[in-house]
Amino acid sequence: MSNSMLVVTAHVGDFVWRCGGAMALHAQRGVPVHLICLSYGENGESNAAWQGAAPVERDAVKQLRRAEAEAAAEILGVASLDFYDLGDYPLPESPESVQRISQTMRATRPAVVLTHPEHDPSNLDHCRTYEMVLRARMQAMAPGHGADHVVPPQVLCFEPHQSELCGFKPNLLLEITAVWEQKWQAMQAMPTQRNLWTYYERVALQRGAQAGRRAKSVGTLYGEAYQSIFPAVVPAFVE
Q1: Can you spell out the DSSP letters for 111-146?
Q2: How many domains would you assign to the chain?
Q3: What is the pLDDT of residues 17-61, one digit of tens each?
Q4: What is the CATH number of the domain that holds 32?
Q5: How many helices (H) and strands (E) would you count in the chain?
Protein backbone atom coordinates (compact mmCIF):
# COMPACT_ATOMS: atom_id res chain seq x y z
CA MET A 1 0.00 0.00 0.00
CA SER A 2 1.34 3.45 -0.95
CA ASN A 3 0.87 5.64 2.11
CA SER A 4 4.30 7.13 2.80
CA MET A 5 6.18 10.23 1.69
CA LEU A 6 9.74 10.30 0.39
CA VAL A 7 11.79 13.51 0.35
CA VAL A 8 15.02 13.65 -1.68
CA THR A 9 17.23 16.74 -1.41
CA ALA A 10 20.62 17.73 -2.75
CA HIS A 11 21.89 19.22 0.53
CA VAL A 12 21.03 18.72 4.19
CA GLY A 13 19.35 22.11 4.67
CA ASP A 14 17.06 21.95 1.66
CA PHE A 15 14.27 19.91 3.23
CA VAL A 16 13.80 22.34 6.12
CA TRP A 17 13.33 25.50 4.07
CA ARG A 18 11.40 24.03 1.16
CA CYS A 19 9.09 21.34 2.54
CA GLY A 20 9.50 21.19 6.33
CA GLY A 21 5.84 22.07 6.77
CA ALA A 22 4.64 19.26 4.52
CA MET A 23 6.87 16.81 6.34
CA ALA A 24 5.64 17.83 9.79
CA LEU A 25 2.00 17.96 8.70
CA HIS A 26 1.99 14.46 7.25
CA ALA A 27 4.08 12.96 10.04
CA GLN A 28 1.55 14.41 12.50
CA ARG A 29 -1.20 12.59 10.59
CA GLY A 30 0.59 9.26 10.86
CA VAL A 31 2.15 9.21 7.39
CA PRO A 32 5.70 7.77 7.45
CA VAL A 33 8.05 10.46 6.11
CA HIS A 34 11.38 9.21 4.74
CA LEU A 35 14.26 11.56 3.95
CA ILE A 36 17.32 11.20 1.71
CA CYS A 37 20.03 13.89 1.70
CA LEU A 38 22.44 13.35 -1.19
CA SER A 39 25.16 15.56 0.33
CA TYR A 40 25.98 17.41 3.52
CA GLY A 41 26.31 20.65 1.55
CA GLU A 42 29.74 21.02 3.07
CA ASN A 43 31.26 22.93 0.17
CA GLY A 44 28.64 25.41 -0.95
CA GLU A 45 25.86 25.38 1.65
CA SER A 46 27.90 25.78 4.84
CA ASN A 47 29.57 29.17 4.56
CA ALA A 48 29.22 30.00 8.25
CA ALA A 49 30.98 26.79 9.24
CA TRP A 50 34.09 27.77 7.28
CA GLN A 51 34.39 31.24 8.79
CA GLY A 52 36.78 32.01 11.61
CA ALA A 53 40.48 32.42 12.21
CA ALA A 54 41.26 28.75 12.90
CA PRO A 55 41.46 26.26 10.00
CA VAL A 56 38.42 24.01 9.64
CA GLU A 57 38.51 20.37 8.58
CA ARG A 58 36.03 19.22 5.95
CA ASP A 59 34.99 16.22 8.05
CA ALA A 60 34.19 18.56 10.93
CA VAL A 61 31.87 20.58 8.68
CA LYS A 62 30.17 17.37 7.56
CA GLN A 63 29.66 16.25 11.14
CA LEU A 64 28.20 19.64 12.05
CA ARG A 65 25.75 19.60 9.15
CA ARG A 66 24.77 16.01 9.85
CA ALA A 67 23.99 16.87 13.47
CA GLU A 68 21.88 19.85 12.36
CA ALA A 69 19.96 17.72 9.86
CA GLU A 70 19.31 14.99 12.40
CA ALA A 71 17.99 17.52 14.92
CA ALA A 72 15.73 19.17 12.34
CA ALA A 73 14.44 15.82 11.07
CA GLU A 74 13.56 14.75 14.60
CA ILE A 75 11.58 17.95 15.15
CA LEU A 76 9.65 17.34 11.93
CA GLY A 77 8.86 13.73 12.83
CA VAL A 78 10.88 12.02 10.11
CA ALA A 79 10.64 8.21 10.20
CA SER A 80 13.98 7.52 8.48
CA LEU A 81 16.95 9.60 7.39
CA ASP A 82 19.69 8.52 4.99
CA PHE A 83 22.84 10.48 4.11
CA TYR A 84 24.56 9.59 0.84
CA ASP A 85 27.56 11.91 1.31
CA LEU A 86 28.12 12.40 -2.44
CA GLY A 87 29.77 15.80 -2.11
CA ASP A 88 28.37 19.04 -3.49
CA TYR A 89 29.16 22.04 -5.71
CA PRO A 90 28.96 20.14 -7.95
CA LEU A 91 26.98 17.06 -6.97
CA PRO A 92 28.50 14.19 -8.98
CA GLU A 93 26.71 11.88 -11.40
CA SER A 94 26.00 8.64 -9.53
CA PRO A 95 24.22 5.67 -11.16
CA GLU A 96 24.76 3.80 -7.89
CA SER A 97 22.79 6.45 -6.02
CA VAL A 98 19.96 6.26 -8.54
CA GLN A 99 19.71 2.55 -7.83
CA ARG A 100 19.87 3.23 -4.11
CA ILE A 101 17.01 5.75 -4.28
CA SER A 102 15.06 3.27 -6.38
CA GLN A 103 15.55 0.57 -3.75
CA THR A 104 14.29 2.98 -1.09
CA MET A 105 11.20 3.63 -3.21
CA ARG A 106 10.57 -0.09 -3.41
CA ALA A 107 11.06 -0.49 0.33
CA THR A 108 8.94 2.48 1.44
CA ARG A 109 6.42 2.51 -1.47
CA PRO A 110 5.71 6.26 -1.31
CA ALA A 111 2.51 7.80 -2.62
CA VAL A 112 4.41 11.02 -3.25
CA VAL A 113 8.03 12.10 -3.66
CA LEU A 114 9.10 15.67 -2.86
CA THR A 115 12.23 17.02 -4.52
CA HIS A 116 13.79 19.96 -6.35
CA PRO A 117 12.36 21.42 -9.58
CA GLU A 118 13.85 20.57 -12.95
CA HIS A 119 15.44 23.97 -13.60
CA ASP A 120 17.69 25.93 -11.26
CA PRO A 121 20.53 27.70 -13.08
CA SER A 122 21.90 29.08 -9.81
CA ASN A 123 22.37 25.61 -8.33
CA LEU A 124 22.90 22.69 -10.70
CA ASP A 125 23.02 20.26 -7.76
CA HIS A 126 19.25 20.71 -7.56
CA CYS A 127 18.80 19.91 -11.25
CA ARG A 128 20.87 16.74 -10.93
CA THR A 129 18.83 15.66 -7.92
CA TYR A 130 15.60 16.09 -9.85
CA GLU A 131 16.94 13.95 -12.69
CA MET A 132 18.20 11.26 -10.32
CA VAL A 133 14.79 11.07 -8.63
CA LEU A 134 12.96 10.60 -11.94
CA ARG A 135 15.46 7.97 -13.06
CA ALA A 136 15.06 6.16 -9.75
CA ARG A 137 11.28 6.31 -10.13
CA MET A 138 11.57 4.73 -13.58
CA GLN A 139 13.67 1.92 -12.17
CA ALA A 140 11.39 1.40 -9.16
CA MET A 141 8.29 0.97 -11.34
CA ALA A 142 9.93 -1.42 -13.84
CA PRO A 143 9.07 -5.13 -13.32
CA GLY A 144 12.30 -6.13 -15.00
CA HIS A 145 14.24 -4.72 -12.06
CA GLY A 146 12.37 -6.90 -9.56
CA ALA A 147 8.98 -8.26 -8.63
CA ASP A 148 8.61 -5.67 -5.87
CA HIS A 149 8.08 -2.86 -8.38
CA VAL A 150 5.93 0.05 -7.20
CA VAL A 151 2.91 1.98 -8.35
CA PRO A 152 4.48 5.13 -9.85
CA PRO A 153 4.36 7.83 -7.17
CA GLN A 154 3.44 11.43 -7.86
CA VAL A 155 6.41 13.79 -7.85
CA LEU A 156 5.98 17.25 -6.33
CA CYS A 157 8.69 19.85 -6.76
CA PHE A 158 9.04 22.20 -3.83
CA GLU A 159 9.71 25.90 -4.23
CA PRO A 160 13.30 26.87 -5.14
CA HIS A 161 15.15 29.80 -3.64
CA GLN A 162 14.49 32.03 -6.66
CA SER A 163 11.26 30.88 -8.27
CA GLU A 164 11.31 33.40 -11.12
CA LEU A 165 14.81 32.27 -12.13
CA CYS A 166 13.73 28.62 -12.28
CA GLY A 167 10.44 28.98 -14.14
CA PHE A 168 8.68 27.54 -11.11
CA LYS A 169 4.89 27.72 -11.47
CA PRO A 170 3.18 26.21 -8.43
CA ASN A 171 -0.15 24.49 -8.89
CA LEU A 172 -0.50 23.34 -5.28
CA LEU A 173 -0.49 25.50 -2.14
CA LEU A 174 -0.23 23.66 1.17
CA GLU A 175 -1.49 25.47 4.26
CA ILE A 176 0.96 24.68 7.07
CA THR A 177 -0.16 27.05 9.83
CA ALA A 178 -0.87 24.18 12.23
CA VAL A 179 2.75 23.00 12.04
CA TRP A 180 4.51 26.31 11.47
CA GLU A 181 6.08 26.31 14.93
CA GLN A 182 7.61 22.91 14.20
CA LYS A 183 9.02 24.15 10.92
CA TRP A 184 10.38 27.28 12.59
CA GLN A 185 12.07 25.19 15.27
CA ALA A 186 13.54 22.92 12.58
CA MET A 187 14.85 25.97 10.75
CA GLN A 188 16.51 27.17 13.95
CA ALA A 189 18.15 23.75 14.29
CA MET A 190 20.22 24.80 11.25
CA PRO A 191 22.30 27.71 12.65
CA THR A 192 24.95 27.22 9.96
CA GLN A 193 22.41 28.74 7.54
CA ARG A 194 20.73 31.15 9.94
CA ASN A 195 20.82 33.79 7.17
CA LEU A 196 17.89 31.89 5.60
CA TRP A 197 15.60 31.93 8.63
CA THR A 198 13.83 35.23 8.01
CA TYR A 199 13.86 34.75 4.24
CA TYR A 200 11.90 31.52 4.44
CA GLU A 201 9.60 32.93 7.08
CA ARG A 202 8.67 35.62 4.54
CA VAL A 203 8.18 32.97 1.84
CA ALA A 204 5.86 31.01 4.14
CA LEU A 205 3.84 34.11 4.97
CA GLN A 206 3.53 35.04 1.29
CA ARG A 207 2.35 31.57 0.30
CA GLY A 208 0.04 31.51 3.32
CA ALA A 209 -1.53 34.78 2.22
CA GLN A 210 -2.13 33.35 -1.25
CA ALA A 211 -3.61 30.16 0.19
CA GLY A 212 -5.84 32.18 2.51
CA ARG A 213 -7.28 34.19 -0.37
CA ARG A 214 -8.25 31.03 -2.22
CA ALA A 215 -9.59 29.25 0.85
CA LYS A 216 -11.22 32.44 2.18
CA SER A 217 -9.48 31.98 5.54
CA VAL A 218 -8.71 34.74 8.03
CA GLY A 219 -5.79 35.37 10.32
CA THR A 220 -2.08 34.87 9.82
CA LEU A 221 -1.42 31.85 7.67
CA TYR A 222 1.72 30.04 6.56
CA GLY A 223 2.06 28.03 3.40
CA GLU A 224 4.33 26.13 1.01
CA ALA A 225 4.15 25.95 -2.77
CA TYR A 226 4.55 22.88 -4.96
CA GLN A 227 4.47 22.00 -8.63
CA SER A 228 3.19 18.55 -9.62
CA ILE A 229 5.01 16.76 -12.44
CA PHE A 230 2.39 14.21 -13.41
CA PRO A 231 -1.36 14.76 -13.87
CA ALA A 232 -3.65 13.73 -11.05
CA VAL A 233 -6.32 11.10 -11.78
CA VAL A 234 -9.71 11.95 -10.31
CA PRO A 235 -13.13 10.26 -10.63
CA ALA A 236 -14.94 13.56 -11.14
CA PHE A 237 -14.44 17.31 -10.96
CA VAL A 238 -17.36 17.73 -8.51
CA GLU A 239 -18.44 15.14 -5.97
Answers
A1: EEEEE--S--TT-HHHHHHHHHHHHHHHHHT-GGG-
A2: 1
A3: 999 999 999 999 999 999 999 999 999 999 999 987 678 899 999
A4: 3.40.50.10320
A5: 8, 7
